[in-house]
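Section: Multi-chain targets

For targets with more than one molecule, the full set of components is provided together so that the structure can be written out for the assembly as a whole rather than chain by chain. Components appear in the order listed by the source. The example entry contains two components.
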Amino acid sequence: MSSAEERGKRLGFLIATLELTSQQREALFSLLPEMSEAQLEELSEVLEASYLQEVTKNADEKLVGELKNIEEKYEDAVAQVNANTTKELDSIS
Amino acid sequence: MPKNPEKFRPPSSLEERRMVIENLKNDLDALTVEAGALRKGGEEMDGLVKSISMLIFELSDERGEPKRFIKDEDRFAKAINKISKKIDKIKNKLQELSVEQPETKIPEPQEEVKDEIKEDIQELETITAGDDRESINVKEHYNHAERTLEELESYLQNHNIENPQGLSIENYIKSLKGMLGRMKEKLDQKLYDDFEEIDINFELGVKDAYKIFPKSPDQVPKQQPKEKEISDEDLKKIAIELGVGKEQPEPEKKKVAKEKKVTVIGLEDAEADWGLLEEIGVKLLSKEKRQETNELTKRINQILRLAGKADRANLPNEVEEQMKRFEHTFKELLSKIPENIYKEFKSQLAGNAPSWEKTKEKEKSVEKVKEPKKETEPVLEEQIIEEKPIEEEKLSLELHPLEPENEDVEIDVSDLQGEPVKPSAELKTSEKEPVMSGEIPDKGIVAEKMVKAENKVEIIPDYPVEVKQEPKKGLWSRFKEAVFNRETKKVAQKVSYDTVTSVLGVKLITDALYAIKGKGDLAEWWKGRKESKGSREAINEAYQNLIESFEKNKKNKTLEESEKIVQHLADLKTKVESADISPEEKKALLDRLWLISMKHEQDSKATAKDRNKQVDSALDSYIQGKISGMKIARDGLNFALTATGFAMLRGLMYAGTAIAERAGKARKEFDKKTFGANEKKTELKFVAKDVFVNSAIETARALTGRGEKEGVGGVKRTVDFIKALGTIARGFGIYGLAISGTTVHEQAIDKLLSQLKENGAAVTVSKNFAEHVERVWETYSNPTNILGGNKESEKPEVPSGPEQPPIVERPEVPVPAEVPQGISIDQIIDDNKLSAEFSDSLVSFLKEHPELSNKESIENILNASKIGPDAHSHHGNIIKGTIDTLDESGGERRQVIFEEILKHGGPQAAANYLQSQHFSSYHLRHLSGHINKGTPDEFLKFAEKYNTNDPRMVSGLFQAMQGRESTDLANAGLEVDAVNGKPGIDNHVRGKVSYFGLEGGKPVLSGSGTVTVDQMGVRGAVVEKTVAPDKELDLGKTDIKESIREDWQKMGSRLAPQWEGNASVQAETNTVVPQTESSRTEAVRPATRVEKTLNTYKSSESTPVAEAAPVVAPVEKNIPAEKMPAPKQAPETNVEKSAEKSPIASEPHADAPLNKFLVEHGSNQKEFFGNFQTMRAAIEKHMDSSLVYTEGSSKFLEEKTNYLYGLQEKYKSALEHNLKLSSTDLRQIDKIIETEELYKNRKDEWVEALGKSLFNKEDGKVMELVFAEHSNPDLEPILANNSNAVRIWDPAKKKDVIWYVEDTTFNVNKNGDLIVKDSSGEKIMDKETVLKLAKQ
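Its structure, encoded as tokens over all components, is:
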């Protein structure tokens, strides 16, 4: 993606994926000409990041699930260690 | 543990060395248990185990992580060798002890062990020299403690003081001695952390002793102050020096000064600073906070140790790590320290001079502080009051409030990390709220304690510096500046995620996007890790937060319990140490406790470590998955925006304003705005920007279905800028965007973007983002929608004139980063001469799988789509033969796609692809062992484990994919089994064809060949005759014969279910089946033939020629070879219809015993395996097409089909490896050959024969039932044959439910009801009941 046309399409696509009201969208359109090329690029990057974040959100949810699972297993293991130690202590007291 | 310690050479990676240590620990665990079991005679063992455990612990730090010295190969090797030898020695000893009588006395074991431990320690000290620099300080601490105890003891003995609390002096001394003993022990063991803990307790104990047994100043022997020690008095002095206290009256001040030397003022070197600050921390904390203090002390010591090793290559990282830990610990600690001291601490850490030095320079201000309120005596912290002698309470000290005019007297604001200092309330001197010693004001406020002459203490809380603003430059930053070199700073800057709001959010992606700019591959970027360090750390931090919150939410009882146990162990130790029991008993108890404690600690650490590893792994896979997902999404975006369908582009690009026109418009606008300025560069730049903007607006409008509104091309500029900005900000959920009317537009937009970056647009954009995106995509991929718009939209301008030709050229395939740019789908399409429909399907497919938009993948897929004599499986070593049918081609293509996705998109994407195949249980049988129920997890595991060198995996996947294709073809009516006398339909490929699946129920083809859909007729005979081998056939003819024979067999297999019903038909015609040269008989047997061609599909622009008349005359198959049509008529007729290709052994194994046996029995390896495979396929296909399984029957039949597969593989392996077969095997093979003969000759008995030759009697009967044809299901809904299974017609599914129950037999009575017989007797059931039961 290098031409202005292509970059514009990309930005347009990304804007289209935003759930904005028509008023907000028009406002955004009105601002675009005010932006420098660098700002347009920056806006594209931010929106792209958001877009990618959204479409990969499942991975986040999966991670949270996995971490919770790990923690639960960890707790079980700690409980086992505690139980063993308590048993040992009981044997001498 | 290394197997041969003598020759042990350390592995090269740190991870492997970590494993070595881990293994050693495991060995030690086992030994500990064994030693414990031999306790009676094994005291020596305990000692040895203890000695080894100490050695191993010396290899790890307090977190169980290997110490740094293990990076040194020689030192590591030496240490491991030493430990390994010791472990061997223990094992030998254990062996000896285990055979010895329990009564066996070991002469003076304790002394031996002690000596051994001492030796070990000495040796390890040599090994780890340089890492234990603190040992000297610790020894000094110990010596000091020893002297202190002697003095205390002497004092208490010399002054027969009455015990005010009823405590026994003797016991008290005993307890302190016990602590001293433990300190010595820890010192000997080099367990310095433990030592420190006891040391602190000891010091507090001594202090308590002096408090419990009060002394007059002249009676108290002066304690020898430790180096850098600071007394309570010192603290007061510091308070004065800091400008927060009031100077005490001169005479009293002198009196105090005489008592103890102040050694802390004027910090001259860094180490002294640390010592001082540590002491401040320690002193200011109450006993309850001791644990954190100890932790802090440890952290500081670790950092100091590191600081002393500036030559270490990895120093920055190590220091960084330690600092992080320190910072964490210290943050907790600081929250409990009076803020004034905290500020001073931070100021000094930042490298500023102590405030007292500034104070001297600002005497005037100091004077102001000293003047007021002589009547009150502020005290720094209540512990000081608590511990100081009564005389000291007469001191007139005062904490002065931080009044505005004194701001400069306090710590320099710039040193306080930018914290603004608010003027405090005026100091109050209320006497109404006496506060007893021990009460601590909340919130870390600066408490002012007024000690009145009459010893009443009063706390007046004040909030002079209630400032919690974010510092400009934090402690951490200053730390880094002080310690890090330039390079490290760079890293540190990346770590500072000032814009991170959620690591599991936008930042990672933003970083990734920045990182890959111009670099290509996200995955590579991640692998490099250098740039990912920041993200990784931030993720870890986020993880910690997550866990913390998780633990808080759960109010983690288990971990609380764990802490209690640790505390309990410590209490027990103390109790035992001070218990009035014999030294022997005490030692035994302490030893036992030590072992339990050690085990508990070790297990806890191992558990935590295990958890951390899992977390690491989860994070890694998350990051990989996330990045992989991002890559796919990003590539998809690129793909759609550049290539997709060009249909799209046509719609978008040419439905609106063309580039040239836009540029023209833009130029005019520019001219207007610039009043004729014509600097070319500027103009071009402007034009480019305008095209950018206009293209964006146009695209967005088109995709949101709103069409083109006014302003495009010159966007309406009358919108109030600020208002627009506010509207957008609200749209993104950004509030409080401080933009004034005077703000320059560019700056205002910068602010908006900055806020957007921080907030992450996606977070505030849409709750239904996925659906929304889907809608956009849908719109995007359907130009009609765009062109048509909706009611609100305006119809886009239709371009006209020569400037806007409706270009139909194919766009470039937007290839992912790893694919060289410039690969054009056009080129690929041209090179392969693909038809239009094939190309469209391919492009469409690539849109769905952008990860495959690279030349290699596309070409592999195209190769896999080929059908014909030159087409082979890409796993030719496993899947033999040519690809000459649609279903084979489908299997091959799907398998290649799977492998390509796996390669370019990773296991998850490949698993998703598998799941999208919607395999039936029949298909999944081929993947049994890997995939049983077809759950996402199973698919993922399969993808992760998939190995192209594993024949079973490869062939299984191929067969499953082929089955899937076959089912699709059947659903599209391209192949239909003959049922109840109705003729079957089959498809045949003629010529060279590439096949890309079905589109609208029709095959997507390319190439010059055709695919016909033919109605098949069956004629059969049961006559056999012996003929002489056909020696006249040349090789080519032989091939044709072979091919046709196989065709027949395979076609026959497809028709297998109909054998009973079509028996009469089969008898009508006799045709000769060509045999191989090795055959001694030439069978005259039933034939199938193409009765008429229903449809012909041809790959060309004008295809398909659906519903066309047959283009090829029906091909009579199964005719004698010599009567075969010349190759012109039928050489390209590849009507091989095997349900599967199989791994068939080839000729090279002619000398194998199995091959010889086969030849001797009238077969050969190719025929044997080919027929076997075909029979298997027939069985499975029949089962799939005519049966509905219940749980029991599914399991039973799966076992049988697996058994057949295993048998086939077993014999194949025997062939390939020239193995000699057992007589049982040979008998079985003989039976299989007989069955094959029946099968080849269309004898219905082949199923029964197969059942008898391969299965036991009962199972054989079930198989027979399975294969029976259900000719009249409406009249006879139940089929049973006194086996363990029954078939019941399910009219809804038009199939038989097969019900299998072990130990139960099923029969049908005259009324057609089912007789169910089991151990409980017989029951009669009607069809409905049976069906209901079977389905349960």
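The first helix of chain A runs from residue 4 to 16.
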